[in-house]
Amino acid sequence: MSAVSEHTIEDLDRLFRPRSVAVIGASATPTKIGGLPIAFLLAQGFEGPIFPINPKASEVQGLKAYTHIGEVAGQVDLAIVAVPAALVDQAVDDAIAADVKGIVLFSSGFAEISEEGRLAQDALMARARAAGVRILGPNCLGFMNLSEKVFATFSPVVGQGVTPKGRIGLISQSGAYGAYAFTLARQRGLGLSYWITTGNEGNVDFADCLSWLARDPDTDVILGYMEGCRDGRKLEAALAAARAAGKPVVMTKVGRTDIGAQAAASHTAALAGEDAVFDAVFRQYGVYRAYSIEEFFDVGYAFSVAGIPSGENLGVFTVSGGAGVLMADAAADEGLALPELNQQAQDRIRELVPFAAPRNPVDITGQITNDIGLFETSLDIMLEQGDYHLVAAFLAAAGQGPMGEHIAEQIGRVRERYPDRVFCAVSVFKEPVRALLERNRCLAFEDPTRAIRALSALAWFARQRQKPAVPVASRGASVTLRTGSYSEADSFQLLADFGVPVPESHLVADGAEARARVAQDSRAWVAKIASPDIPHKSDIGGVRLNLRGAEAVGQASDEVLAAARRACPEARLDGVLLSPMEEQGVECIVGVQRDPAFGPVVMLGLGGVLVEVLKDVSFRSAPLNRDMAMDMINELRGRAILDGVRGQPPADIGALADLLVRVSHFAVAAGDSLESLDINPVRVRAGGQGVVALDALVIGR
């Protein structure tokens, strides 16, 4: 992160943790935009001074009013601006002159409506930056600091009740969605530390808020709702900060628009949609992506209550065989391991309950109705003897009945004996039982499948935490590409300089030169048209395979030249490129696409020329290390093909990973001068024999 960004993050303290608040455009009517924040601050018990600024009033909602913010004696940390767009410039300039360092700008009428509005917003933000002032907005719903009772918002949801003080920070680029999420959090009883909406992000963006929450001592988990991102590298730095702080990030990202579709010459561009790139970046930094509001809160709740397990083995404890099967099926769907309980432990449980099914799931049946102590005793045996990091206990309806509190107390005692395990109870709960479980850091769910999915998310994050940190982009060697497409030969030379294995190749002018070149060579050859203007050679008949003998090579060379002249009469033809035929191995594609927000993004796909049909691809933001490259390989749906199928030997996966790393280094070195790169196909040979790039296309911006 740059020094400027670090300074910005420190300045956000005055914005999000103010000791005094002024409201410019304050209203005596508590239901108006200029009146709601004052009403909320008063009702919720903000302990600092509140200064209403209204030139037409001497008093606002029982507080002394000021005609101008400059009249306020003492420091104002936060100014809430709730005036029409035409008055915003003066209000912000007045706040800057009064040495205010944090501003929440509710006002709309800026970049969200027109180009003229964008220019006005940019000019306003430039003045604020020059003065070291941080502005949240414009066109935003503001924020809430639940810990210190700062309600810098006009959202009416606050008037309906607030969430408990908790340790979940919530950031939303959408104010309306943020209000909706706040309401759901309140209904579920989830405790929030901060609720922040970013609006137009003129001066403080989503990444700034994420970075700030990553270092906030009152926040353990960060939930985010994103619609887009203008500075991908800044977002990556924020995600890296959260990862380094050990704070889980749960993200809902909407919008699935393609980027780069105009770069039709590149397979990578056709596949690297905006959503695919965001998805890759989230995986890269260990961000859990939620696809529904239910999952968004379930996972955030699980992180905030139970924490991160030390592993991913699941033990299911149940009083119902059917529910145990349901949960086991859900665990299998989520990829959670359910190791069987050892025989000694099974025998001990059967001594307690002769008709129990104690393998895993461990079903002790409804006998706890007769002897409630069986619950704690059996659960103890299970954890003492079994290697379980996560425990899900299905209690049927016991959470609603008289046994509920007793079971919750037993779980609490077991939890104390096994503090490194994650516990989850599934039942229909009375509120006191739920509260007791959560005080004991035990999750409480009503739906068994949702419970398993939440536990799976915790296990996923535990795996991510074990991975090494993402490397910081380093310029190293620098390459400046010229605009336009490079020939295959020139593309090979660029890649070879970065250690990418390229084939033996010979550029010949025509069939006669081709015959002379291979006259004494008995190998099989490939003849391909060489032209920077023909990216997909096979589409125009510009490729001939498995040629043996000088005559066959020469004739094929003349044929591909003729085919190219017919199909592309305006194309520049450099000749024919001859290479030895590579027949064995798995075909992949490796590419790079320049994303407008994140810069160079590396793609790996299975299928070679069929990649756009199969769409079996994975992405990462450059640069890569070897672990990240292996993650890309392992994410492919057809990953098993590389292990060898139908008698084929295992492919050289390590060499493929090395190739991905080297390509990423080339992409970083080329920087903004690179538009895209396709290496298609890459032949992955048998284990120990390496890889080779059989075709390559570099396009400079």
From TrEMBL:
The keyword Manganese does not apply. Signal peptide: none annotated. SUPFAM superfamilies: Glutathione synthetase ATP-binding domain-like, NAD(P)-binding Rossmann-fold domains, Succinyl-CoA synthetase domains. Keywords: Ligase. InterPro entries: ATP_grasp_subdomain_1, CoA-bd, Ligase_CoA_dom, NAD(P)-bd_dom_sf, Succ_CoA_lig_flav_dom, Succinyl-CoA_synth-like. The keyword Nucleus does not apply. One of its GO terms (molecular function) is ligase activity. Residues 15-110 form the CoA-binding domain. This is 6-carboxyhexanoate-CoA ligase. It comes from Alcanivorax xiamenensis. The lineage of its organism: Bacteria, Pseudomonadati, Pseudomonadota, Gammaproteobacteria, Oceanospirillales.
